[in-house]
Amino acid sequence: MRQVVISATGVFTPPEVITNAELVEAYNAYADAQNEQFAEEIASGERTPMEHSSEDFIFKASGIERRHVMDKVGVLDPEIMHPQLRQRDDDEPGIMTEMALEAARNALQRAGRRPDEVDAVICAASNHERAYPAIAIEIQEALGIQGFGFDMNVACSSATFGIQAAADMIRSGSANCILMVNPEICSGHLEWRDRDCHFIFGDVCTAVVLEEKSQATAKGQFEILSTRCLTQFSNNIRNNNGFLRRTRPDGVCDRRDMQFMQNGRQVFKQVVPIVSDMVVSHCEQEGIDPAKLNRMWLHQANKSMNDFIGRKVLGRVPKPDEQPNILQEYANTSSAGSIIAFSQNSDDLPKDAIGIICSFGAGYSVGNVIVRKLD
Fold it and tell me: What is the rounded CA–CA span in Å between residue 157 and residue 108?
């Protein structure tokens, strides 16, 4: 069977940043306005007043300090509280394609590959701006790539599932070089008016170039030793609409479940053992001692969750360089989080170092990619 390598990665980071302080100020202004508007119902006990958020609450709950977004103004306006992403004309690139191009070009340059040397494009993301035509085909056209493209969605595990799909195609011989991109506009499906989750997400795009090992030429390649995917249905993380927001004539969203919803305590309780057990068993099946992993690039959802998984897998508290954290800068960027961590924290590893890229999220879904540094 042919061997597969990750030859390069790329990251597009939106220039606009929202700090926790800015987010708290906007959210509390919205909460005060709501409490004033419904003062009589609150006084009569018919309605519960909205609590204030705080920087301390956000950091303790998540480890997040700031997030990058495609539109800052709309999110921080107490009368809007969502990004204002303009409607694109049919003859101009969509916002996901726009985000993907910079990450893709950066990854291709690092891989030493021209677009005409790429056989396929996979756009793997938790939310897509339209049903069809596929975003991947639009990215393919914009880059001048021949071959084929398709979209896929496994929520926060989309990138690792995308890597497995690409690796399987390369192993089988149906492709030699595949570009896998993750344009995540998480700000578009977050409910910024909900104290329990208003701080969670940010926007970003990552790109990964995968190639048949004998044809790859870039420095710093990682050979894919093994991949694993797992899904188990749960309603504890759900989004019933995403970009297709159903609204009343006044523009207000009718249903809370049209945006991101999460039962955080249940997710923590159920997902942590699923992920920990899967990482350990996957390593052991491949003859790898999980306690000797050189690095774990985990999904960047919640620092406490990642710390717990790290302790379960390694049997001790991970050192910072063994389990890099990018949450403080990017917040949760869904499927792109583990790829950002990998992209920014892999060049320093020595030859033959072994690590695991692991993502997990709604579904539930878990994806593992065990890799070895080649040079």
Answer: 23
CA distance 14 to 183: 11
What the block records as the tokens of 128 is 């897509």
Dist CA 262 CA 237 (whole Å): 4
Q: State which fold the 223-373 domain adopts.
A: Peroxisomal Thiolase; Chain A, domain 1 (3.40.47)
CA distance 316 to 60: 22
Give me the DSSP letters along 211-270: EEGGG---SS-EEEEEEEEEE---SSEE-S-TTS--B-TTS-BS-GGGS-EE-HHHHHHH
The predicted structure's pLDDT at residue 267: 82
CB environment 112-142: b (16+ within 10 A), e (fewer): ebebebbbbbbbbbbbbbeeeebbbbbbbeb
Rounded distance, CA 275 to CA 282, Å? 10
Look at residue 6 and give its three-state secondary structure.
Answer: strand
Handedness of CA 346, 358, 228, 290 (dihedral sign): positive
Which residues partner with 262 through β-bridges? 237
Q: Could you report the per-residue pLDDT of 301-320, keeping only the tens digit for each?
A: 889 999 999 999 999 999 98
pTM: 0.93
Residues 67-99: tens digit of each pLDDT: 999 999 999 999 999 999 988 899 999 999 999
**Active-site annotation, residues:** 156
Judge whether 178 and 120 are in contact, CB under 8 Å: yes
Domains of the chain, by residue range, sit at 223-373
